[in-house]
Specification:
The protein is of the alpha/beta class. The strands form 4 sheets. Strands 6-9-11-7 form a 4-stranded antiparallel beta sheet, with helices on both faces. The protein has a 3-stranded parallel beta sheet with strand order 1-4-5, with helices on both faces. The protein has a 3-stranded antiparallel beta sheet with strand order 10-8-12, with no helix packed on it. The chain has 3 domains: 47 residues, Transferase, Pyrimidine Nucleoside Phosphorylase, Chain C (Transferase, Pyrimidine Nucleoside Phosphorylase, Chain A, domain 3, Up-down Bundle); 240 residues, Pyrimidine Nucleoside Phosphorylase, Chain A, domain 2; 83 residues, Pyrimidine nucleoside phosphorylase-like, C-terminal domain (Aldehyde Oxidoreductase, domain 3, Alpha-Beta Complex). The structure holds uracil. Uracil binds next to α9. The site of uracil (URA) has 8 residues, from α9.
Length: 406
């Protein structure tokens, strides 16, 4: 097979056979296809898409690139959740402890930041000592012991997704329905959970910008789940404003703890909604009953205790969390109503401050980020602080690039 012919075929909107997909993708994993050749194919897929047969073939190739976890030694119905990625999305750090504190096993495999969206593994690595590379045995034992574990992809789980994910992150090839569906669903199927909740984000700060695309992605992922006999439910949720006030790794862990300790906010409401769906799926009870259990475990402090237990179990020192001591307040130059928070731009700003990667080799600065001080529809006076940047370098920004005040 000829690499350039395959790339050209997709560039010209052709359909790739399973053999051609396997040749390119498995070849990349084996080091036979170069970064620049794979990037070119990924870009052609981003632009010209794939049909359903190609997508199902790609999912199969991703899954078979490694092991499928056997979670049968974990007692009970195992649940998992996955977000398609957002700005300030620390929901897993809140929903996981809530669900686990109700005795439901929550084995979660998470990823790093992708494009302008943050990743749970990067957030957890802002806690000194936290082990994000559990072996399969450690992962299973921990879920049996405390009902909750989060790990990066274990060494041999969808290794193909791991390398493609890292390449997409730095080549502008993130926003593709086929590539997102293959990436998420291969990990979720190989991850072994029985019931899976997908949070498909839509809006300015999401990978899916329109409701039409979000529905397409949600339906496609549910269809893939069904094919592999998994109970998959997809929610579509708003990403036109960051989730919560904090963006950036340490800052997001701190905010997740605030919510677990009782802080009220729209972020808490979303976490209650997602946790309720998971509890309802796991226990086969109504959403209303589930919601009562979720609020009760949050209010009792049990979910927060579960978070601390989880961090300790994975060798993290929660007291080590640090944010940058250098801060810059961004002040409004206008008076009026905060009409729009430009979420994508804030996500990119966070990456540029060092909270995400611009090239594959980049090291993240866990201490940097953004704290929003104003919310949509707030009345803003000239000189009001709109957000505070936690930085490791001097930077000047134009507030109009991030906030629309009318
Ligand atoms: N999350 C993933 O795991 N993969 C994607 O492609 C997007 C979000």
């Amino acid at each position: 097979m000829n690499i350039v012919e395959i790339i050209n075929k997709k560039r010209l909107k052709g359909k790739l056979s399973k053999e051609e997909l396997s040749f390119m993708f498995n070849g990349y994993l084996e080091g036979k296809i170069k970064d620049y050749q794979m990037s070119s194919l990924l870009m052609a897929i981003c632009i010209n898409g794939m049909d359903e047969e190609e997508i199902f073939d790609l999912v199969d190739i991703f899954i078979k690139s490694g092991d499928v976890l056997d979670l049968s030694s974990i007692n009970g119905i195992k649940v998992d959740k996955h977000s398609t990625g957002g700005v300030g999305d620390k929901v897993s750090l809140i929903v996981g402890p809530i669900v686990a504190s109700l005795g439901i096993p929550f084995p979660k495999m998470s990823g790093r930041g992708l494009g302008h969206t943050g990743g749970t593994i990067d957030k957890l690595e802002s806690i000194k000592g936290f082990n994000t590379s559990l072996t399969e045995e450690e992962f299973i034992k921990q879920v049996n012991d405390i009902h909750f574990a989060i790990t990066g992809q274990t060494k041999n789980l969808c290794p193909l997704d791991k390398v493609i994910y890292a390449l997409r992150d730095v080549t502008g090839t993130v926003e593709s329905i086929p590539l997102i569906a293959a990436s998420i669903m291969s990990k979720k199927i190989a991850g072994g959970a029985d019931k899976i909740l997908l949070d498909v984000k839509v809006g300015d700060g999401a990978l899916m910008k329109t409701m039409e695309d979000a529905k397409k992605l949600a339906n496609l992922m549910e269809k893939i789940g069904k094919f592999y006999h998994r109970d998959v439910h997809a929610l579509i949720t708003d990403m036109n404003t960051p989730l919560g006030d904090n963006i950036g790794n340490s800052l997001e862990v701190i905010e997740a703890m605030d919510i677990l300790k009782g802080k009220k906010s729209p972020l808490r409401d979303l976490c209650i909604e997602e946790a309720s769906h998971l509890v309802s799926m796991a226990k086969n009870i109504s959403l209303e009953e589930s919601e009562k259990e979720v609020i009760q475990t949050l209010d009792s402090g049990k979910a927060f205790d579960k978070f601390l237990e989880f961090v300790k179990y994975q060798h993290g020192d929660i007291k080590s969390l640090e944010v940058s001591f250098k801060t810059i307040d961004i002040k409004s130059t206008k008076e009026g109503t905060l009409n729009k928070i430009k979420t994508l731009n804030l996500g990119m700003l966070s990456v540029n401050l060092g909270a995400g990667r611009i090239s594959k080799e980049d090291k993240i600065d866990h201490k940097v980020g953004i704290v929003l001080k104003k919310h949509l529809n707030d009345y803003i006076k000239k000189g009001d602080i709109l957000c505070t940047l936690y930085v490791n370098k001097d930077i000047t920004i134009n507030p109009d690039d991030y906030f629309e005040i009318v």
